Automatic annotation (TrEMBL):
It comes from the Eukaryota. The lineage of its organism: Eukaryota, Fungi, Dikarya, Ascomycota, Pezizomycotina. PROSITE patterns: PIPLC_X_DOMAIN (PS50007). GO terms for biological process: lipid metabolic process. This is PLC-like phosphodiesterase. It comes from Westerdykella ornata. GO terms for molecular function: phosphoric diester hydrolase activity. Signal peptide: none annotated.
Length: 467
């Protein structure tokens, strides 16, 4: 029995990756298939544990059919188990030809090599940093509507820390994000679920729910800190940031809905966000039908829309960079399950049923689609720290790349890859369960969104050639 794990090879190009050769020494499992165009394949690998394991080695050589491009997959154990991509005949947007890209290795889990090609022939991968990925993609995305662009998204984005709220709330059942708002932006997230609440007279991000007649939950980052972090990001990067305000509460007064005056105070507070996207008299304009170039051709844009309760209005804030759900209609239906298989089947079936992006208007289903790749704690999980929200999220990070991508098509793909614990694939909550441990982060979800834009939306003529 060796030491096993997997490598997911995601081919987001129109060309098959054809194996031209493979070789291994002391590897218990080393067998590589052709990777079909537009598909992801998880390959199981097992290092040997006999003899001098430092000599364990494997090579797999891939040619990209119809092109001069090629790369290698290398396995080595200089000090620890490691997989490397060698770009001997390929350069990407972030890695020159000849680069060695260290993917690491995860026992009984996966690492990913995500490689896609845009309409201009540029290669994108999950190597290097792609903080301004929207600006770098303007050649292919500038004239696409937001309905036809995929992006990472953060569920309960303000809950990157835990501050006590009600009895029974703790970080394991309340904190949803490992990274703060700024780091989520740096890791590629562009759609943010922000839930402002009043707590001790201050605006903070909250995560509360009503169970029977009892409210449970706690607080995360302050809204003031979130505003500072947004402004720090847009000072340097001309990206589009979409913020959905919802689940607002006055926790100081029996968790009641906000009054009009409190909403006005919230909007006045959020006016400190720079680069708000502002148009006069927007009325009921649907901005999901606007193209990306309308927002960020030469500047950053922060688009803020609010899920307003009945009886609450924007008033003049509608002319100051604030919008309602009518201005940004979305399909958003989460699974409400703590079981990975149930959640996956639910989200993929909803995507198939709700998205059919075709030229024939009578057959078209084309609403901005939130793909909620989220596990929801159930009562039996609330006091089980090993079933922490962030742990549940880490447990479904791998199949988002290896399984969900294979269910996407050029006619049916999501707009928001919506997750908890964005950038994390290892459990951050482990014994002794006193606080989240430090874990490595990654930007695979950005490369995945780019691959969806290239391999799915980019192969749909209705999307790429106009309407």
């Amino acid at each position: 029995m060796g030491y096993g794990g997997s490598l997911t090879l995601l081919n987001g190009s129109p060309h098959d990756w054809v194996l031209s050769g493979q070789h291994s020494y002391q590897m218990d499992t080393w067998s590589w298939p052709t990777i079909n165009a537009g598909k992801a394949t998880k390959v199981y690998i097992e290092f040997g544990l006999k003899g001098h394991t430092g000599d364990d080695a494997g090579e797999a050589y891939y040619n990209i059919a119809g092109t001069p491009n090629k790369f290698q997959v290398l396995a080595r154990k200089p000090s620890d188990f490691k997989l490397t991509i060698h770009l001997d005949g390929l350069a990407t947007k972030t890695s020159p030809q000849g680069s060695n890209i260290d993917l690491g290795f995860r026992h009984d889990a996966a690492v990913n090599w995500i490689l896609s090609q845009d309409e201009a022939g540029n290669w994108w991968s999950n190597s290097g940093t792609q903080t301004d990925w929207m600006q770098q993609s303007m050649g292919s995305l500038a004239n696409r509507t937001l309905r036809h662009i995929a992006m990472p998204g953060s569920h309960d984005a303000g809950m990157s820390t835990f501050r006590p709220g009600t009895v029974g709330a703790h970080f394991a059942n309340t904190q949803t994000q490992y990274l703060d708002f700024y780091q989520q932006l740096m890791h590629g997230s562009r759609y943010f679920d922000l839930r402002p609440v009043i707590s001790n007279g201050q605006w903070v991000a909250g995560h509360y729910s009503e169970v029977g007649d009892i409210w449970l939950g706690g607080n995360g980052q302050s809204i003031a800190d979130i505003i500072t972090q947004i402004n720090d990001f847009t000072r340097n990067y001309k990206e589009l940031i979409i913020i959905n305000l919802s689940h607002t509460l006055d926790t100081d007064h029996d968790y009641r809905d906000l009054t009009q005056d409190q909403w006005n105070d919230l909007f006045n507070t959020l006016k400190s966000i720079n680069n708000r996207f502002t148009v006069p008299n927007p009325g009921r304009t649907d901005f999901t039908q606007s193209v990306l170039g309308d927002f960020i051709t030469d500047r950053a844009s922060v688009f803020i829309f609010a899920q307003l309760p009945r009886g609450i209005s924007l008033g003049d804030f509608a002319n100051q960079g604030f919008y309602t759900q009518d201005n940004f209609p979305v399909y958003d239906s989460y699974s409400n399950s703590n079981d990975a298989g149930t959640m996956q089947r639910d989200q993929l079936s909803k995507l198939k049923a709700e998205r059919n992006i075709v030229a024939d208007a009578s057959q078209r289903k084309d609403r901005f689609h939130i793909f909620s790749w989220i596990l929801t704690q159930q009562p039996e999980d609330v006091l089980n720290f090993d079933r922490a929200i962030m742990n549940l999220a880490a447990g479904v990070a791998d199949p988002l790349v290896s399984e969900a991508f294979n269910a996407f098509t050029p006619e049916s793909f999501p707009n928001v890859l919506y997750v908890d614990a964005i950038g994390v694939r290892d459990k951050p909550v482990v014994f002794p369960f006193d606080k989240p441990r430090s874990v490595a982060t990654n930007t695979d979800i950005v490369a995945l969104a780019i691959a969806v834009n290239n391999a799915m939306a980019g192969r749909n003529p209705y999307v790429t050639k106009g309407r």
